[in-house]
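Homework help board

Subject: predicted structure for assignment chain

Our instructor gave us this sequence and asked us to write out the predicted structure in token form, then describe one feature. I got the tokens but I'm not sure how to describe them. Can anyone check?
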Amino acid sequence: MKKIYLLFLVLVGITSSCTKDFEDYNTDEKNPVDIKGEFLFTSAQKNFADQISSTSVNLNVFKLFAQQWTETTYVDESNYDIVNRKIPDSNFSVYYRTVLNLLDQAEEKITTDAPNAVETNKLAIIEMMRVFTYHELVNTFGDIPYADANNIDNISPKYDDAAGIYTDLLSRIDAAIASMDSGSDSFGGSDLFYSGDVAAWKIFAYSLKLKIAINQADAVDVATVYASVKDKVMSSAADNMLLNYQGTQPNTNPMYVTLVVSGRKDFIPANTLVDEMKAVSDPRMDAYFSNKIDGEYVGGKYGYSNAYANYSHISARVQEATFPAILMSYSEVQFYLAEAALRGSDATAAKAYYEEGVMASFQFWNAPNVADYLTANPLVDMKSIALQSYLASYTRGDVSYTTYRRLDWPIMNEAPEANTSDGSVPSRFTYPINEQTLNAVNYKAASAAIGGDDMITKLFWDKN
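My token output:
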């Protein structure tokens, strides 16, 4: 495991000298005068990883929307109520204010008139983090503030077309890759994901390019991107993008805080996930769940109140303080490759990628009997890829939720009091309430452009 330093307080001490002039006495040495770009970058990474990992119903409900988990007592979020707790507002705030804004500040601190190779690498890595963040925002809302975003001189940013943003993100990835020098350093220990390894960031960049391309595969031909990156993406679990949390707060996995530190019993595995795994006799159940009921795992009924003691629980490993934030995995990328190959009618390559994706997931979760499992669950069609990607993305609600939206598989259970107009699983978040009031003109234009600010309005890539 990489040794990391979670610099959760981005404060820099001021070095004092033995001799002071009059001006020195007007300087508050207990508070920072300047913050290094490296510290700002670290903080942005930590905030991004925490948001992806979180299971707080105030911040991230995608484990619920993907029906990996369900709730026990308070079931509003399992029934897609995102307004009561202003979840879209929190999502906007985290990504724009505590990730993108910090990345912009980090770039400003690092930029020089004549950047050397190290500084150029840092700027390229900051750019990759921006691309990843905007990708998450588009997949959550659709059209979003982009060209005008985080401009202090424009407090009412317009919304840009989601498909156009996707196109621009791919171009930005290409530019970032072209500027990276794998033979030079970057952030070193200030980089929580790859410890400043520029070659690793290049591999991630190609993998993210594939991810963005495959997300829009129903709307745009991905053959060109697939051909250009298939030999450059993650090639083993050593390439996984992880944040390895520490064992003490505030540098623990947010799931540990919600599931353990809180002392609450608000979440259990959902019957949707548990039943899918039971149907294929999936050995990963022992890694995902605990507390068998009469000798078998039993998931809580999705969207209903569930007595905690009567159902299976989330496994001890997932509840550990040090369980990593999984931001992108080798297994995930293999399923993208399998999908791209199958869309291109290359059944042989699709089978190899599919099996590698399953094996990588089994290895990560220390699950046995993968050969027998693959024999019983071979690649048949796109549903096979959708199911295995969904199962392998446990704890990664955003990935499973997007896989479901794109490929419409597996079948989700109906929430009994669904807050969507037709009772279905939401296709997106509605825009933040603050945007509706403080940026009303641009909000109304964006709402009209996407076909209505409704949770069942499909994103541009969700064609089925």
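Reply (TA_rk): Your tokens look well-formed. For the description, you could write something like this. The CA atoms of residues 188 and 196 lie 4 Å apart. That's the kind of observation they're looking for.
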